[in-house]
Amino acid sequence: MSLFEKFQLTIAKDKLIVAGETVIAGVSGGADSVCLLHLLTRLQKSLSLHIIVAHINHKLRGKESDRDEQFVKSLSKKWKLKFVSKSVD
To answer: 57: which strand partners?
Structure first.
């Protein structure tokens, strides 16, 4: 069974997402949150999901933090997802 199939099965079995819902995905730019976002986009059409990508730039790593924010923003644009970000110190 693939990762996507396990993800899909868990979502359905535990009723974690209902068809037609808005899902806000917190995406840092790291591998785990980008993987989660990718899996959600694969479910998007079949469950009629509206996905909002949320990113918080804590400015802890200077320019690297800014690059993460830009990466998540560009990924959201590529996948045609709404992107919301906030910078906090």
So the answer is: 87
